[in-house]
Each structure stands twice: as C-alpha cells, then as structure tokens.
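Example A, followed by Example B.
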Amino acid sequence: MTTRLVQINMKARDDAALGRFWAQALGWGVDSEGPGVTNLEPVGFSYPDPVAVCIDIVARPEPKTVKNRVHLDLATTSPAHQAELVARLRDLGATPADVGQGEVPWTVLADPEGNEFCVLEPREVYRDTGPVAAVVVDCADPREMARFWDGAMDWTLHEVADDFASMRSARGVGPYLEFIRTPDPKTGWNRVHLDVRPYRGDDPAAEQARLRALGATDPGIDQSGIAWTVLADPEGNEFCLLAPA
C-alpha cells in the first residue's frame, strides 16, 4: 500500500474568484463540485495523474493572517518568459510580497487572497514540470520530512540535505515536492495543505494505520462531517488522506 500527492487544498474567502485567478495564471480549467468548492486542473487532464498536482480551493470565512507554510513555485523557460509571466500575474491581481527573501533571482508574489508564491528564474531541473515547478513546504527539519513523506508516498526521493529535500513522482513527471528549512515555527492551521490518495483497491483504514506508524498524528479537529481523514505530518502540518482511486 502507498499514497501519492494528487492535489493542493487552499482555503479562500472567495473560492470562485481565487479559482479564476489561478486558472488564468496556470492556463488550467475550472470546475466545481458544489457551492464553496472550486477545482482546478489542466484542460483535458484525467484525474489522478502525476503529470499535474491539481488545486482544490475551499471557502472559509477566516482571513489569512500569517505566512503560509506551503506554497507554489512557478516555472519559466527564459528571462523574458519570467518577466512576461510576472507582468501578466500582476495584471491578474497578484501583488509583490516580502517574505525576507532579499536579493534573489526569483520573484515573490501574493495572489489576491495573500497566498505567497514564487515565479522562478529559468532552471534546467524544472524544464519539463509544466507551469508548476514545485510544491514547497517550509519546515524545521527537511531530513525528517523527507523520511516521512518518502515512506508515505511512492514518489522518488531526489535530494536530501540539512536545509533542503526534494521528491518527484515515480514516473518522473509533474512538479517536485520540496522541503525547505525555515526558522519560523508553525502557528495555527495551514490554509494551504497537501492531499494524498491511496490507489484503487487499497484499504483506507490500513493506510491510515501505516501513516501513523511512520509518524503521522491526529490534528485534534472534529472530523465527524467529512468522508476523508485529516492527519498531521511530524511537524504538525495538516494533510488529507482521501479515498482510494
């Protein structure tokens, strides 16, 4: 048994408006499974497929108050493409963001609800990822996060160091999942989190037990009204274990 990363869950005060922003930003399609939920995926995409990590935007009334611990890095193919993409995103409603990055070759922006993301300078490692180069998770210990997520998913571990670790789907397609050491502690629940899904035919209860044995914990929230399971990784970052598919 194992899982794979299938989507990112974002909370938003206006899921439809934020969905329109990200759909235009990535060139993806927009759908909805009901009021308060906006789904984004590439046009013609057959879910789930590691060629893309989809985005689910879910309405919540609470405003964003702290820097997100999970964000997206967007890929570019040339300096001209980077400048063009930044300008286009600004026109769509993105704003410059200062997260203490200093002088760096990438550009840090925030979407219309304040969620930070980066537009990277061209990097060879991201040449074939699609518009999303990486899903990035802030953490205190990249090595420990890599240990947990390497055991939790069937993705391939590419790099592990004290300050950085990265993984990618076993097929070598789609974005990377990266863990970056940051000094900021986690405060409150994450407005952006990972959703993982077991494969068709797997036993959800057994998969939950396996993840707990790896170090997943109960985040201590009421789960009586949902069909999936919310867990937390070893650093307390919430993630959802969805039904097998």
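Example B, a separate protein, is given below in the same form.
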Amino acid sequence: MKLSLSKLGVLSDRDLDWLNAMGITKTIDKGEILIRQTQPIDELYILLAGTLTVFVSSSEDEDNSLEREIVTIASGEIAGEISFVDKQPSLTTIKAKEKTNLLILSFQQLENKIQQDEGFAARFYQTISAQLSQKLRRVSALLVKNKVISEAPLRKVLFVFAILDDSDIDWMIESGMQVNASSGKILIQQGEPVEAVYILINGTLAVSVTLGEGNSRVTKDINQLSSGEIVGEMSFVETGKASATVASFEESLLLAIPQQQLAAKLKQDMQFAARFYRAIAVVLVDRLRGGLIRHGYAQNTDLDGDIEYEGELDLDTLQQTALAGTRFNWMARRVSGNNYY
C-alpha cells in the first residue's frame, strides 16, 4: 500500500514519490502501542489505513495512572509530528484502535530532505501545521467541554519571530494594514471565514466560544490575549472557518495581514513559506503540550525523568526569545509610528 495524493493534498506527486521510496511500511494489530508517553521517538508515522487512538496519563506511574482518550488519528493523518517539531519526548501514548497500516520515516531522513529541498520543506510544514491545528481544535473543544479555561501561553510572536528572518518581518509590515480596534470590535467571528492574520501590537483581545443551538446557546469567555499574540493563523493553515470569536477587550492596535496577500507570498517564496509554516507548527505544538500539561491531562518529563517546569529555557531558547522580542519591538515602533515600545 502506498501513500496517495488524496491523503496529503498539499504535497506534490514528487514529494509523495520520495516519501514512498524512503519510507518503510508496517502493520500493527489492534491494541498495539505505537508511541509511549514520556518516551523519546525518532520516527514519523503516516497512516495508510486504520485508526490510532491518542491517550494521555496523569501519572508517571503508568500502572496506576488514569488514561484519557483525547483524539483519534485517521487514514492520511500523521503521528509523531509534535516530537519532530520540538524534539521532546512524546506527551501521549498512541495505540492502534484497529489493524493499522503505517508508512514510517526517520526524523533524520526528513530533516535531511528539508535542508536540501525548500519546496518540500514548505509543503511538509504546511501539512504538519494544518494537522496540528485540527488536533488543537479537538483538544480545545475537550478542555472547553470539561469547563477548563485557558491560561495565557508564552506570546506566539516569540516563537514566530525567532524563526522568521528580518526580511520576512519587513514584508509583513509593508503588506499589512494598521487596525485601530475600539473596545468590543469583533475581528474574527466564530463560524465565519477569517480575512486576515492579526498581530496584536498593543491592547487586549477577548476570545469566546458559543456552544449549543437555539435557546440553549451559551457563550463562554475562554481567554484574553495581550500584546504579542497572533490570531487567525489556525483558520489560515486549515483554510477553514473560525472556531472562536475574537473581539477587542479594550482599545487595541493590530497589524492585519490579508490572507490573500499572505497566500500569494507563500506560493511565490518557498524560503519564506518553509520558515512561516515551521513557525506556525512550533506555535501549535507549544499550545497542544502546554494546554494538556497546565490542565492536568498530562505531565511533561525530560529524558532523565525530571519534570520540566514551565519557564525553564535553555541558553539557545533564551537567545532566540531575546531576538524575537527585539524584532517585535521593531515592528511595534513601525506600525504605531512612535518609539515608546
């Protein structure tokens, strides 16, 4: 069985030929564990047929832990992409729900290909970003269903601007539009197409979701976003409709990058596309890990079994974060036309 274009549509025929040529096929039986929580992995799995179930455990002792099913992975979807993006041990256990056929590629194979082929890199990270966004939507729905309110994550811009280069950010500033949003102004409406990707320069945004239908409809506030946040990126990578409403909580300044212009730039500039989609993938991975860990659905451990507390950053990450902060301040000054940032 080979991977077909219908399963991963953004990849080209040539990309699929490479994946099929380099990958190893494997069949696992119902109940067999493919990936074990807290264990390092070095392979990416593409489902050719069958279904996988993703579980998280709230205890390090797997014999005594409570397993919670969070999502399923179907034919054409990918497993192991979170660890591929952030090089951390798996946050989840993944089992075969039924007899399942897989195409397996090593992380090293993929990284070598990404370094050598910019077009493949852009399309591959776009594929991963779209699938991560879909998984994040499912996990977010689970948290909302269980009445868990999100906490403010590390500003997305610090991840994105650490990966993009100065020319990318300069293009965003030149192509974007300054938006002065008064309190209560709706920027993104749940269930509607999203016209732009927004970077919040100054102010606060409120995120809410509406659940139920008719007279039973209830609107819940789930988060507030501060300066440095990016919104609309999930709908962009999925080319879908918004899963939440985003409105200005107070008078706010944003840079709006129209989706049509961004899509055209990504199509024309493969180097930018590879950086952009990789950055979005990093953001989504952080949100997936962070959401589950903060709300007790899982524990994050490093290779030695020590808990990685949020906020512990290595030197390289600190340096990248500092650079990203400098780039954001540069953008803020140019968009706002002043120097008080």
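On Example B: Residues 60-64, 148-154, 301-315 have pLDDT under 50 and may be disordered.
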